[in-house]
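Discussion board: Methods & Data

I've been asked by a reviewer to show the raw model output for two of the constructs in my manuscript, not just the figures. I'm not sure how much to include, so I'm pasting the format here to get opinions. Each protein appears as its amino acid sequence followed by a line of discrete structure tokens. Is this the kind of thing reviewers expect to see in a supplement, or should I convert it first? Here is construct A:
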Amino acid sequence: MNATTAQARYAAAADQHEVGQLRRPGDDRMLAGVAGGIARYLSTDVTLVRVIIAALALFTGAGAALYLVAWLLIPAEGYDQSIAAAWIASRNREGESR
């Protein structure tokens, strides 16, 4: 394998990794984009994911809690960190400056 082949394989692997990342999209959202992100990640219909989340919320109460946790932990498109990770990082920076 030569250097060009290795670079091509690395680029292809990087492209596949980017596609497989779980992100909250900016264009396919009703609330925070959690269902849209999960649907894209699983390559399924967003309506199906929304129905499952709504059913979990109505019948078990877990849907709302899981949605909130997912909103905090899944980063939005274009960002490297989730809301929770950014909050924790800012708290760590504040603690270090004291």
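Construct B, same format:
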Amino acid sequence: MKQLVLGDTIGSLEEIVQRNTVITVDSSLALVGSVKRLRAANLILNGKGYELLSRQDEGPESNFTSMFGNPLVIALNRYVPRKRTTVSPDSVVSKRMILARDGYTCTYCGEFGNTVDHIIPKSKGGPGTWGNLTTACTSCNGRKGNVSNELMGYKTPKIPKEFIPKRNLMIQEAIHERIAAMSY
């Protein structure tokens, strides 16, 4: 799976979103999630949504694409209230949640990160909680070891209070960029 970088265009979105998957946004153009193409066609046929953006990549012509087009993003006709996931700094979380929160990007160098680092090292009493964990690449995490950020010269990372996977924010931004480009 390709890593998404902030500022990517819709073209790279097409590479990330599976061929039979359609991104769904609500009436405020906020990301809701994704659905299979058949479900997207059903929503459009029932008047619950419309095709907002179509795929630009050329795939094989099928009965489905000849009838319904090749949607990449559909917009629902209604607003979908968002459930905010607020996380306290003391919440114990999984490695997967931390990596998703930080977009698999090392907090220290900006490269691809697949390990989780304790800001205050475990050996110094640092807990494995939301407020004390951050994503790091293998080399930065190994270099830091059980030393505090201040001694290493690293800035203390800003930890968000809400859990919104970075991938969702990047998809949302790419959709808004594409719509803005269409309006000129």
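Answer (T.O., handling editor elsewhere):
This is acceptable in a supplement if you add a one-line summary per construct. For B, something like: The two ends are 32 Å apart (CA to CA).
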